[in-house]
Amino acid sequence: MKAPRFATYPSLRDRVVFISGGSSGIGAELVRAFAAQGARVAFCGTRPGGGQALIDEVVAAGAPAPWYGACDVRDTAAYQALLARVIAELGPVRVLVNNAGRDDRHAMEDVTSELWDERLALNLKHYFFAIQAVAPGMAAAGGGSVVNLGSVSWMRGRPNLVGYTTAKAGILGLTRTLARELGGRNIRVNALVPGAIVTERQTALHRDPAADQAFLDAQCLKVRLDAGHVARAALFLAADDSDGMTGQHVLVDAGIAQQSVIT
To answer: 149 exposed, middle or buried (CB, 10 Å; 0-12, 13-18, 19+)?
Structure first.
């Protein structure tokens, strides 16, 4: 069987792309995918040297070296200052991928006011303030694309994740409102919604043969999804090929969300 061949997007070459939470998991694959398109990629993570291994990997593959900065996205002032550095050093961000987040489990009874605020700060709040920071330069440069990473977990009513699922549901409202508000500036805002994605973190914490089978049984497509499936969809939403799309909620879930409507 021949290896699959995927698209190249000329409109992404030399564009400045910023990806939050790009050091690992889906975020790292997003960095690889955009760098392979010839984009000028910048990304952030939580550790000062946390991006170097990925930068070395990207350069070894023949792509331009990405820019990396360490930041806690929950600290709005520090995060917007980091984005200002990216703009000053690389130019206006034309593609923003809001990806950073974490799906830690917690029982409803264990949620405190402080934990609730932290879950929303980590999984929703920084999306808005990143858009706020890059939108003026993006508009002045002629427009661009914002891709907000969501999750099908809220659509499926997954338990023990109420802080996470509430934040992820909010991403749809954020996306639709800002698509309307920023459309006049030629800025497109779409949500990209992964399903059950195999990552190192998910494998270490939650994956076993029974879990794999449960996901396959629930999906329409009988294949475990990986970060590459998400990254390829993100490239399309970022590129000019999707220039007629905004305010959309695009699922990359192998059909698992359909299980919630089966009676």
So the answer is: buried
How many beta carbons lie within 10 A of that of residue 150, not counting itself? 27
Please report, to the nearest 10 degrees, the dihedral formed by the alpha carbons of residues 202, 203, 207, 213 taken in order. Answer: 100
User: Which pLDDT belongs to residue 262?
Assistant: 43
Q: Alpha-carbon distance 188 to 145, whole Å?
A: 5
Q: Judge whether 184 and 141 are in contact, CB under 8 Å.
A: no
pLDDT mean for each 10 residues of the chain (263 residues): 75 98 94 98 92 95 96 97 98 98 87 94 97 98 98 82 92 97 98 86 70 82 91 98 97 81 43
CA dihedral 236, 242, 247, 251 (to 10 degrees): -40
Angle between helices 25-36 and 227-238 (to 10 degrees): 50
pLDDT number for residue 197: 86
Average pLDDT over the chain, rounded to whole? 91
Which position among 68, 79, 127, 164 bears the catalytic label? 164
Active site residue 164: yes
- pLDDT recorded at residue 118: 95
Query: Rounded to a whole number, what is the distance in angstroms from the first to the last CA of the chain?
Result: 38
- Please report where in the chains the tokens 């330069």 appear, as a residue: 137
- Token pair 């879990």: residue: 211
Sequence-separated (6 or more) residues with CB below 8 Å from residue 13: 37, 38, 39
* Contact between 253 and 259 (Cβ < 8 Å): no
Task: Report how far residue 91's alpha carbon sits from residue 102's, in angstroms, rounded to the nearest whole number.
Answer: 29
Contacts of 237 (CB under 8 A, 6+ apart): 145, 147, 188, 190, 192, 245, 250
Q: Which amino acid is at 11?
A: S
Contact indicator for 255, 226 with CB cutoff of 8 Å: no
